[in-house]
Specification:
single chain, about 150 residues, alpha/beta, Rossmann fold, about 40% helix, binds 4-nitrophenyl phosphate
C-alpha cells in the first residue's frame, strides 16, 4: 500500500507523520511506500523544520534527509490513500481531485482515530516546541491505526 501525507508547507506535520509511519512499518517488517507533500511552495526543496527533526529524533526517527515537495495531481495515480492534517489541506486536495476515485482516497488523518470527526492536526509552525510534541502524539496514535490497514 502507498500512503501520502499532506500538510501546508511539508516541513512540520506531514514529514513527521511520514517518519512515524515508516518506522512503525519497518519495526514490524511490513512493506509500504510512505511519502509526504505540501500545498504551498514557501519551503519547497527545504529540509523539515528543525523542531520537527528534533521531535522525531526524540523517538528514534530520522527525518533530516526529507526535502519538501509540492502535491501534484499525479499523486492521485500513485497513492492508495492520502491523509491530510486540516480542513485547508482537505479543501486544497479535494479541489484538484479529478473524479470520485480520487476523492475516495482523501481523508483527515485523525479520522483514523475518530471516524467522521474531521478533527485537525493543528499547525505548530507559529507556536513553541510543545506544539510539536502534541502533534507527534496525535499522529503517532493515528499511525497505529494506519498500520492496521496493512494487514
Ligand atoms: P506544515 O507547517 O504545513 O505542518 O509544514 C507550516 C509550515 C510553514 C508554513 C505554514 C505551515 N508557512 O507559512 O511558511
Amino acid at each position: 500500500m502507498k500512503i501520502l501525507f499532506v500538510c501546508l508547507g511539508n516541513i512540520c506535520r506531514s514529514p513527521l507523520a511520514e517518519g512515524i509511519l515508516r518506522k512503525k512499518l519497518n519495526d514490524q517488517h511490513i512493506d509500504g511506500t510512505i511519502h509526504s507533500a505540501g500545498f504551498e511552495p514557501y519551503h519547497e526543496g527545504q529540509h523539515p523544520d528543525p523542531r520537527s527533526i528534533s521531535t522525531a529524533r526524540k523517538h528514534d526517527i530520522d527525518i533530516s534527509n526529507k526535502l519538501a515537495r509540492l502535491f501534484t495531481v499525479n499523486d492521485f495515480d500513485i497513492y492508495d490513500r492520502i491523509f491530510v492534517m486540516d480542513a485547508l489541506n482537505y479543501a486544497d486536495v479535494m479541489g484538484v481531485a479529478r473524479n470520485e476515485e480520487d476523492r475516495k482516497k482523501v481523508d483527515f488523518l485523525l479520522n483514523q482515530l475518530n471516524a467522521g470527526s474531521n478533527d485537525e492536526v493543528p499547525d505548530p509552525y507559529y507556536g513553541g516546541a510543545d506544539g510539536f510534541d502534541k502533534v507527534y502524539t496525535m499522529m503517532d496514535e493515528a499511525c497505529d491505526q494506519i498500520v492496521r490497514l496493512f494487514s
